[in-house]
Design brief:
The protein is 38% helix and 24% strand. By secondary structure, it is of the alpha+beta class. The N and C termini lie far apart (53 Å).
């Protein structure tokens, strides 16, 4: 079974996660209303007021005048998604990305897929402050629809026996690659739902939809099978720890960083890679976040060096003065270790 993890209204969700004052309030991410800007993302609260992606920002603010308008911060959204996917990779055999807001995963056995997918959604909320939903199904297409229509529980599973019945009621324009003009052509023939499309003979469907008719039929029948793309080696590695109690104790925080560095060092050694940079990201008790990065003198996989760099970065934050609830240590600039080098790549001079 394929699990699809989706963060609805990703951009708005990140804005709410980064600014606790926005939580529970309608948030719109989009362009300048004075320049006919458009909405790129909306929070659940704004969506409930009729605001949708793609409408003009001016119109959105008329529908929801008390909404908070934020400009797009694509770099920040990508940064959080990279962290989020690191968490998903840790428990997955394979992973495949769908845009910024969606991720397909195949969970490593054993265990109940439904329970583990629900646990991942809970962790994403707890550790990153974003609400995720999950769809579980035999195919990517069905898994995406299951996530989008997960309902109040935030998770929907579609079994092998249920997949055709589940897909049947959806409009034909939900099928990937089936555009508005093709949907109109089908509507002229009285075909509005996926179940109706399935009843067409392949030759007749080809007349109406062209060269992609077979692909459309596979989606409609839940037959678009195939494993996810193999899990790719990442350009970064990270470990994070949510503290049992928010802390201002620098010694305790340094010990946590040392533990995270040891875990990363084990992974680097196993994969025979070294890192050129270290990043420390922290979440304060009030929900605000910050990060600091240092480039190493030479690429290294030595846990002590990674830890020392992380502790040095800690000193460049408000640690000790403001309570911290979560620490994340990441290494980047990964490269293959030199043959025979252990722990650290040696400098030429």
């Amino acid at each position: 079974m394929i699990v699809f993890i989706l963060v609805p209204g990703l951009y708005a969700a990140v804005e709410q996660a980064d600014d606790p004052a926005l939580r529970g309030r309608p948030v719109i991410v989009g362009g300048d209303p004075a320049k006919r800007g458009t909405v790129t993302s909306v929070s659940r609260e704004a969506r409930a007021r009729g605001v949708t992606e793609g409408m003009e920002t001016r119109q959105a603010l008329e529908l929801c005048p008390d909404a908070v308008l934020r400009r797009t911060r694509l770099k920040r959204y990508r940064e959080l998604v990279a962290e989020l996917r690191e968490l998903l990779r840790a428990d997955s055999e394979r992973i495949e990305e769908l845009g910024l807001d969606g991720t397909f995963i195949e969970l490593a056995p054993p265990g109940d897929t439904l329970a583990r997918a629900a646990e991942l959604c809970v962790r994403l909320q707890a550790e990153f402050g974003v609400a995720a939903v999950a769809g579980i199904a035999p195919t990517r297409f069905a898994a995406v629809l299951a996530a989008k229509h997960a309902g109040p529980g935030g998770i929907r599973r579609v079994t092998e026996a249920e997949v055709e019945a589940f897909l049947g009621p959806f409009p034909v324009d939900e099928i990937w690659g089936l555009g508005p003009s093709t949907a109109r052509k089908l509507a002229e023939q009285g075909i509005h739902r996926i179940a109706q499309l399935r009843l067409l003979e392949a030759s007749r469907l080809a007349e109406l939809t062209g060269a992609r008719a077979n692909a459309f039929l596979e989606y409609a029948r839940g037959a678009d099978r195939g494993r996810l793309a193999p899990k790719l080696r990442t350009r970064t590695l990270s470990q994070e720890q949510t503290l049992d109690e928010p802390s201002v104790d620098l010694r305790s925080l340094a010990e946590t960083i040392e533990t995270l560095a040891e875990r990363i060092g084990v992974t680097l050694a196993r994969e025979r890679r070294t890192a050129r940079s270290v990043t420390l990201a922290i979440s304060y008790l009030d929900g605000t976040r910050t990060s600091r990065t240092e480039t190493l003198d030479a690429a290294s996989s030595d846990a002590r060096e990674l830890s020392d760099a992380g502790v040095a970065l800690l000193a460049r934050t408000h640690a000790g003065a403001r309570a911290i609830r979560r620490l994340r240590l990441a290494v980047g600039g990964l490269e293959r270790a030199l043959p025979g080098a252990e722990g650290r790549q040696l400098r030429l001079f």
